[in-house]
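Retry 2 of 3 after timeout on previous attempt. Resubmitting C-alpha cells to design endpoint.
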C-alpha cells in the first residue's frame, strides 16, 4: 500500500499518525491502537474503502493497488472525512469524475 502525499489525518488519531503512516509505508502492522483507514479502491465501480486497522493488516491490502488517503480514530470520523471529500468534489464540479478527482488531490 502506498501512502498519499496529501494524507488526511483525523483529529482523534493525530497523536499516532506518524507511527501509523511509517508502519504502513514499511508494510508492517501499525500500532496496537485501533484506527480506520480510507483507501483507494482498485475497481472502477468503487470510489474508496473504509477499513479498520485489523482489516488493513491483511496481505491483500499490502499491494500497490491501494493508496492510504486518510486516517481516522473512529468509524464516525472516517465517515465524516469521506463526506467532506465527496462534498468537495461536488462543489468543485467534479462529482461525475470523482475517482479521477480524488486520485488527483490525494
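Retry 2 succeeded. Sequence:
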Amino acid at each position: 500500500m502506498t501512502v498519499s502525499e496529501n494524507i488526511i489525518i483525523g483529529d482523534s488519531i493525530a497523536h499516532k499518525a506518524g507511527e501509523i503512516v511509517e508502519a504502513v509505508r514499511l508494510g508492517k502492522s501499525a500500532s496496537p491502537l485501533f484506527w480506520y483507514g480510507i483507501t483507494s479502491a482498485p475497481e472502477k465501480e468503487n470510489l474508496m474503502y473504509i477499513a479498520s486497522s485489523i482489516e488493513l493488516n491483511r496481505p491483500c491490502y499490502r499491494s500497490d493497488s491501494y493508496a492510504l488517503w486518510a486516517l481516522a480514530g473512529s468509524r464516525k470520523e472516517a465517515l465524516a472525512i469521506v463526506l467532506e471529500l465527496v462534498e468537495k468534489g461536488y462543489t468543485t464540479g467534479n462529482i461525475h469524475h470523482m475517482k479521477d478527482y480524488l486520485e488527483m488531490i490525494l
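Attempt log closed. Helices lie at 17-26, 53-56, 75-91, 98-105.
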